[in-house]
Amino acid sequence: MVELFTYPPILKGFIVLILTGFAFPITGVYLLRMNLLPLRFMLMHGAILGGALSLAMQVNPFVGTMAINLLLVLLMTRMSRSLKTDPGQLSAFFMVVSISLAFIFIYRFQVPAKDTLSLMWGSLYTLNNFEFAGILVFSLLLIVFQGVYRHQLRAVFFDSDIAKTSGVNEPAFYYAIILITAVTVAAAMKLIGALLLDALLLLPALIASYHAKSYRGMILWSSFWGGLFATVGFLLSLALELPASSTIAAFASVVFLILILSRKK
Fold first, then answer.
1. Class of domain 2-259
2. Is residue 53 a contact partner of residue 68, using CB atoms and an 8 Å limit?
C-alpha cells in the first residue's frame, strides 16, 4: 500500500484530507454552538447552483461554488440581522431559490446534469494545484483563527449581549463564522461530497460534545476525532480498494454508534 503514495493524486489527497480532518470539525463546533445546522443544507444547494452556473460559463466549478456560497451567506446574514428573522427560516428560503435556479441553468444552457450532480460525491483525487493550495491555506487559517480569537469566540458563544458589553465586536465574529462555514462546506463538498461532508464537519463535533467539559475541550476533541476519521478512513479505503469519502463516512458512523451505545450503557 505504501507504493500508492508515490502517485501525486493520492499523496495530495492524503495531505489535504488529513489537514482538513483536523481543521474542519472546528467549524462543526461553531455550527453547534450557534445553532446554525440548517445553514449547511442551504450551502449544499448553493453549491449545486454554483456548479451549474460554472459549467454553463465554462469556469472552474470549485471557484463558482465558493462564490455562490459566499454570496448566499452574506445575503442571508444581512437579511437575518436587518429583518430580525430566524436564520433557519431564511436558509430554507435560499435553499429553495438555489435549487430552482440551478435546474433552470441546467435546462437553459443544456448543462449535463450528471456533471453538476457530481458535486454530491466529491472528487478527492482530482484536485488541481490551485484547489490543493487553497484548501490547505484555508485549513491553516481556520486553525490560526481559532487559536488567536479563542477568548472572543468563547464569549460570543456564551452570550452575544455579554460579549458586546465586554468589548467584543460580536457582529464581526458572527459574519466571520458564517463566511468560514460557507468556505468549509464548499471545500468539504469538493473533497468528500455533499452527502458525506458531515463525517468531517459535524460527527466529530457531536462526539466531542458528549465528553468535553469545556469549549476548549470541545475544540480539541472534535479536531482529534476528525483527524482520526480522516486518517483511518483514508488508509482503509486504500487497503480495501473503496472510495475514500464513503469509507471515511462509514468509519465515522461506526465509531459514533459505538460511543453512543457505550455511553448509554
1. mainly alpha
2. yes
